Amino acid sequence: MKLEICCYSIDDVILAFNNGADRIEFCAGRSDGGLTPSYGDLLQLSQLNLPIPIHPIIRPRGGDFLYSQCEINTMLMDIELVRNLNYSGIVFGCLQANGHIDIKNIEKLLHAAQGLSVTFHRAFDVCHDPILALKQLNELGVNRLLTSGQQQDATKGIKLIEQLHKLTQSTLIMPGCGVRSSNIENFKAIGITEFHSSASLSYPSPMQYQNHNVTMSHNKNDEFLRYGIDPHEIQTMKALLN
């Protein structure tokens, strides 16, 4: 049983490691659902030499998963950077305009990622045909699939997750989005062995002066509210898995 924690800062990576995480998905861009971390973060984190796998996401922008050739080139270069910094794996996904798996570009990305563990991320959850997509990912040799069962959270998608788990061959099914201590045993009961969670919590900004008349974000988030991970939640999930 392995628990992967999604982290958006190096401080959170350290906190997750200290509280029992088995693996880290490392991202920037929380409001976009995860973007490729900066070179500075990737370099700094690699120098910590933490003894658990850390898999940076390779995603050049938010929004859909239909990428231009320039964006694919960026992803290839980011994979090369991650390899050179000795990370053990990556997370990516891309689709065609018709909603099917973009096999041609995935083959390019997999070739660049040889020797790395590869997770296909929740681009899967907006693909046209999940059963066909899983078959293709099995044939491509992707190591694991992160999915909420094509629903807004994994608890609502558990029936598809169970179906995918029964059909899996080389690609391990890992539920994510909304996985918490309150429901993780439901996924354990259907035979799942790896779990993805942000274990998130929010807390007030330490800024003493706060001007609420100005926002730097287009989606009008509260910029004096910060998000991190809950160490107690990680500990509780680990205890339930053990």
Description:
Helix 4 links the parallel strand 4 (89-92) and strand 5. The strands form 3 sheets. The chain has a 4-stranded parallel β-sheet with strand order 3-2-1-8, covered by helices on one side. By secondary structure, it is α/β, with parallel strands linked by helices. It is 33% helix and 18% strand. Helix 3 (69-84) runs parallel beside helix 4 (103-112). The protein has a single domain (2-241), classed as Copper homeostasis (CutC) domain (TIM Barrel, Alpha-Beta Barrel), CATH 3.20.20.
List keywords for this structure.
242 residues; alpha/beta; TIM Barrel; four-stranded parallel sheet; 33% helix; globular
Strand-pairing-aware structural class = alpha/beta
Note the beta-strand portion: 15-25%
Roughly how many Å apart are the termini?
Answer: 7 Å
Overall radius of gyration? 18 Å
